[in-house]
Predict the structure.
Amino acid sequence: MLRCVLANRKLDLPPGVLQPREAVLRMAPYSPPTGGRAGKLRLDFNENTVGASPNVIEYLREHLSADGLAVYPEYGEIKQELAGFFAVEPDDFILTNGTDEAIQVLVNTYIDDGGEVLLLRPSYAMYRFYAEVAGASIREIPYRAQKLAFPLEELLDAIRPSTRAILIANPNNPTGTGTSRAGIERILEKATNAAVLIDEAYYEFSGISALPLLNDYPNLFVSRTFSKVYGMAAMRLGCLFSQSGNVEFLHKAQSPYSVNTVATLAAHAAIQDRAYIEKYVTEVLAARELLYVGLEKLGIPYYESNANFVLFEAGKRAIPVRDELRRRGVLVRDRSYEIAGCVRVTVGTRDQIRRFLGELEQLW
Amino acid sequence: MLRCVLANRKLDLPPGVLQPREAVLRMAPYSPPTGGRAGKLRLDFNENTVGASPNVIEYLREHLSADGLAVYPEYGEIKQELAGFFAVEPDDFILTNGTDEAIQVLVNTYIDDGGEVLLLRPSYAMYRFYAEVAGASIREIPYRAQKLAFPLEELLDAIRPSTRAILIANPNNPTGTGTSRAGIERILEKATNAAVLIDEAYYEFSGISALPLLNDYPNLFVSRTFSKVYGMAAMRLGCLFSQSGNVEFLHKAQSPYSVNTVATLAAHAAIQDRAYIEKYVTEVLAARELLYVGLEKLGIPYYESNANFVLFEAGKRAIPVRDELRRRGVLVRDRSYEIAGCVRVTVGTRDQIRRFLGELEQLW
């Protein structure tokens, strides 16, 4: 349908199609495969595999009203509550429509056309996505081949005075690896002209956070999400933290009602039930050990992870293995286009990992 | 806190604040006053003043589950259903996080830094907002002083080959006025290089839509929302329609999960209950007549509207009138910063308008 020869800027659009921006023409379509997941064991999107706290559903059933749905969202109360929960001030963060909007707002606030953005590779696809939409000049630093380790020295070497943003997931998806708080401080100390985003979507599994550094570094931005351990991916809620002087500008670049009211109600209930989250994290960490042992028994190499997912090496069989697992009702993600031969499996409960290992053993 | 002298680009930021983009520095903060509305008669945001259909709440209570909340949104089924409802194909639109995201995606798809965007003035604030974030070159055409009529000839005169987008609400907020389908066709025929957005947030009250023109004009984009007559502002759901060749590019410039699952469940239930919407529209149109009569009795000039809100002239008393109404439990919006002396009142039910008129009479 579309042929795009970049060298000579020849762009053949079908007749009658309105010419989009060149940045958009160049972008690869991003269409994550999310249809038909119902009824399967969903180890493909790093979600909470048992669901949100039952308290969340109970609270929503009680508090949803036809009148309430008609009213534009109000964020005052939930911001107070979340500030208490995260031990920051209400002026130190914005609510976002998932982490995706956090990335978008940060990029829109700091990245002009041609502005330099540093990313690590492979990483969460949306960093590149929003940087491309903004017309950024993107440089990528690869994770180390050895254990897919965080390339701290390489990243530090790449930082220049012209670097305007550095977007990092810690721990990273899909590698599962990360850096220490000291590593983050070294980045923050060098990249003084850049907005440094530490995306902590998987923080609860690693226990390493940059949030306590917030008051020390005016170039630090931290994002958190309710889509992973909290089991609320359907609701789209995240938070983007920085010093209040920066948050003022983030707020200016954000549309006023991007987070829906039901997500704020759900978050209110979710943060009351810390025990549920702690129990789930404990279960996942135990299941991850079980997964390592199971993979070793099968002689399948894997990468140790600080998050609720693990990459294992299926070699040339990565896609057939994914497809065969799907036929057996178990969903995993092929990542071989990023890391040769690798498949990513989300760690759920021990029972779920036993089922996964059982199916894998049969087809291996 | 922030001084911004544009003439000589002098920008004094507080120490330790990271320098944002100049486009963001220049923007005025947009903070709609949405706190503390509970328990008051909300005639300030053009919402459905009685709430969503009870079927929506019933459906949500039945279909929300802790497991379902944990799963990333899937849009296949609801897109099929909405395509049927709007009499288009599923490839002819994207779901959006309210109309706000429709505007944002359109701007991100077509407007490069410095790209020319035409707006009408006054109009919905988010057109200017997203155009400014994108660094667009904005030209504004004022509504006519006489009856705040749609400035069709003036807009046609302003269109140039370099015009890349025209963002129009029809009917317009806050004027309540609009143009005919023939007027829209004249714009589409002249602005062949531009993405022409017809924002039909208030369509159900005017009955005039550009949607049937979709197949005829590859530069036409139409947005609809569930935030107004459907009583679902809390949920954040809209649709952006265009020919499928354009939608392919809109899709590329949109993040994959911007609409939450609960909104899609609510939409499924909402479109089953057409009778509820028709009844509410009939009620609002009757209440609008009642409002006109009441304002005339009080000798208060107003502008005739094609939507569920009406501007009336309070002169120098605009802000005091708004404040006094608030003290009496009735919320309206001051628009005197846009149209001298004007206050906007949302039209709800006849009972609600009787209450509004009663309070207004006492303080007038």
